[in-house]
Amino acid sequence: MSEVREAGQVRGKRIQGGYARFKENLKNIVVRVLAERPMHGYEIMKRIEEITEGRWRPAPGALYPLLEQLRKDGLIEIDRIDDQGVRGGRKVVYRLSESGWKYLASILIDNAEYKVKIVEYYILEGARLLKEHGLEREAREVCERFLKAFEKLTEKAESC
Q1: What integer pLDDT is reported at residue 3 of this predicted model?
Q2: Fewest Cβ atoms nearer than 10 Å: which of 33, 51, 104, 147?
Q3: What are the Cα distances from residue 138, in Å, to 103, 125, 127, 130?
Q4: What are the C-alpha distances in Å from 123 to residues 59, 116, 117, 132, 140?
Q5: Which of 34, 49, 54 lies closest to 104 in space, CA to CA?
Q6: Fold adopted by 9-96
Q7: pLDDT higher than threshold 90 for residue 87
Q8: Where are the domains of the chain?
């Protein structure tokens, strides 16, 4: 079972700027998720949980204030849809505004190379270190899994 930590904490210790980084990452993930289609808050939480393979789901106390801030910043717009199955009879659905789409483009452009460097450091250099420490089988498994994932990623990138 995975350990649940509060944003900005590592093993109970507060890290410098951790909450601000968490909020920025959550903001970028939410904007990216809303690019798929308009969603209500619970759908956003479930989609993030799905993307992270069940490792993380933002708490409502983090998500809903962020959605309100995104609305104030003009990055998302809100639609209220009649739904008898919802308390109050109206479901709130969030969607990207034109500014939200432009923001998404800017973060994708700005982060593309940076994210690759993170993967290179974490996965490839990590595998090299495993091998240096006598864990050749484990290093090989890391590289094989990475190559399979990279092949899928390359196929998707070629259709971009």
Answers
A1: 44
A2: 147
A3: 40, 13, 8, 7
A4: 29, 10, 10, 14, 11
A5: 34
A6: Arc Repressor Mutant, subunit A (1.10.10)
A7: no
A8: 9-96, 111-158
- Amino acid letter at 123? I
Identify the burial level of 152 via C-beta atoms within 10 angstroms of its C-beta, where 0-12 means exposed, 13-18 middle and 19 or more buried. exposed
Total count of residues recorded for the chain: 160
Residue 16's φ and ψ, nearest 5 degrees, are: -60, 125
User: Do the beta carbons of residue 76 and residue 84 sit within 8 Å?
Assistant: no
Tokens in use for 46?
């479930």
Q: Which two tokens stand for residue 140?
A: 């090989």
**What amino acid occupies position 8?**
G
- Answer yes or no: pTM beyond 0.90: no
Tokens of 120: 């290179």
User: What band does 66 get if pLDDT is binned at 50, 70 and 90?
Assistant: very high
